[in-house]
Amino acid sequence: MTAATTLASTSNDELAPEPAWTAEAFETLSEDAVVGLLLRRMRKLIARGLDPAESLIAASRAHLPIP
Fold it and tell me: Is residue 63 a contact partner of residue 23, using CB atoms and an 8 Å limit?
């Protein structure tokens, strides 16, 4: 549980790969950690040229990694 929360809040590199999350690990995150995770994933996708609306949809698919 702690490792998942730490991972969600430490990576600020917009070009680093984003790992996939298991449903169990995602469910253990606090609300703030989930928001931070989704924002970080959205920013990475937008930086790679995705439309903001599409990046929100893609970021919410936490079970898929962002290479």
Answer: yes
Model confidence pTM above 0.90: no
User: The tokens of 10 are what?
Assistant: 């430490």
10-residue mean pLDDT profile of the chain (67 residues): values are 49 75 94 94 94 94 93
Angle at 30 between CA 55 and CA 4, to 5 degrees: 80
Given CA atoms 33, 65, 46, 61 in this order, what sign does their dihedral have? negative
Report the distance separating Cα 64 and Cα 13, nearest Å.
Answer: 18
Residue 1: its pLDDT value, please?
Answer: 47
Sign of CA dihedral 2, 4, 8, 10: positive
Domain ranges for the chain, please list them. 1-11+29-67
